[in-house]
Design brief:
Blueprint: H1 2-32, E1 34-35, E2 47-53, E3 58-63, H2 66-71, H3 73-77, E4 89-96, H4 97-100, H5 111-119, E5 121-130, E6 139-144, H6 146-157, E7 162-163, E8 166-167, E9 180-188, H7 194-204, E10 209-210, H8 216-224
Antiparallel strand pairs: 1-10, 2-3, 2-6, 3-4, 4-5, 5-9, 7-8
Helix pairs in contact: 1-8, 6-7
């Protein structure tokens, strides 16, 4: 009985390792197969945005100016420091409601929210205020045409779930740094995670990305290619 249990456990562990390796291999290949972005790639690129990345996740960092302050004025009404003199960027992320709202640090990651994110969850948009992030090691510069930049903003705007009073704030959910969470459109799972959302936004903005980039590595690989 013990030998049979050990053999079963080894078989299960091997199957899990095979699935993980296959997923990562497919992500790497997906990062190398390009899909062209929308718009004219030869257009001038007057707007520089950044991707802020870590091992699992990527965000858009959008430069703040009077136009973006007006566009995202609803953030001010919800307590976001939109008029702070040191504010330089609005950082937008999209992810699993269960995982994203509870995992501020690596130490906060728990099996329950992780399993929910893997198997399927509702999504949220996270908005974070930032000072100058251009010199950070995890900041990747992306230059966009004005038209491409507008399409990216439309992609971000379209991710917010809109209620009768506008974007729907998740009251009581934040990391304590002036950030806010909002209800979002779209379902999150292991095949359509945050990095797919970022890649879709980049393509709408005119940037070619990989055909399937579920990991940060595959997303960055497709941009460096």
């Amino acid at each position: 009985m013990t030998r049979r249990l050990v053999a079963w456990f080894i078989g299960l562990l091997g199957a899990v390792c095979l699935v993980i390796c296959s997923y990562l291999l497919a992500a790497g290949i997906g990062g190398l197969i390009a899909i062209d972005g929308a718009g004219d790639a030869r257009a001038p690129a007057p707007v520089r945005i950044y991707l802020l990345t870590n091992a699992l996740h990527a965000d858009f960092a959008i430069p703040i100016d009077e136009t973006t302050r007006e566009r995202y004025g609803f953030l001010r009404e919800d307590g976001f420091p939109l008029d702070h003199p040191n504010l330089k960027y609005l950082v937008f992320g999209w992810g699993s409601r269960a995982f994203y709202t509870s995992a501020k640090t690596w130490g906060d990651i728990r099996p329950g929210p992780t399993l929910t994110a893997i198997t399927g969850d509702r999504s949220v948009v996270h908005v974070v205020p930032a000072t100058d992030i251009s010199t950070r090691d995890n900041a990747v510069a992306v230059d966009l045409s004005q038209a491409g930049y507008e399409r990216l903003l439309e992609h971000i705007d379209g991710s917010f779930a809109i209620g009768p009073a506008g974007p729907q704030l998740l009251d009581g959910f934040n990391y304590g740094q002036g950030d806010l969470f909002y209800e979002a459109h779209g379902g999150f799972d292991i095949f359509t995670p945050c990095n797919i959302w970022v890649a879709n936004g980049l393509r709408k903005a005119g940037v070619s990305t990989g055909i399937w980039t579920p990991t940060t590595y595959s997303l960055l690989l497709s941009l460096r290619r």
